[in-house]
Design goal:
Elements: H1 8-18, H2 23-30, H3 34-42, H4 50-62
Helix pairs in contact: 1-4
Length: about 70
């Protein structure tokens, strides 16, 4: 049985939940507002914008692998 592929939004939310204590650093490194990230995870952002979510997803794919610097 084939497993359904995770959507970009599902991936982004899962990664952000895994990295909860690191949101301030993710915010600085990605250039996205900390409170925007917080609202996204809490489901308070009704229409976050595909390109913004895509940008964050791409950032999170390499985050924690030594490719994003250290602040």
């Amino acid at each position: 049985k084939a497993q359904m592929k995770e959507t970009t939004m599902e991936y982004t939310l899962r990664r952000l939940k895994e990295l909860k204590g690191q949101w301030p650093h993710i915010s600085r490194q990605s250039g996205l507002d900390y409170f925007w990230i917080q609202r996204l995870v809490k489901g308070k952002t009704k229409n976050p914008g595909y390109y913004t979510v895509e940008k964050l997803a791409e950032f999170l794919k390499t985050y924690g692998q030594g490719k994003n610097g250290s602040g």
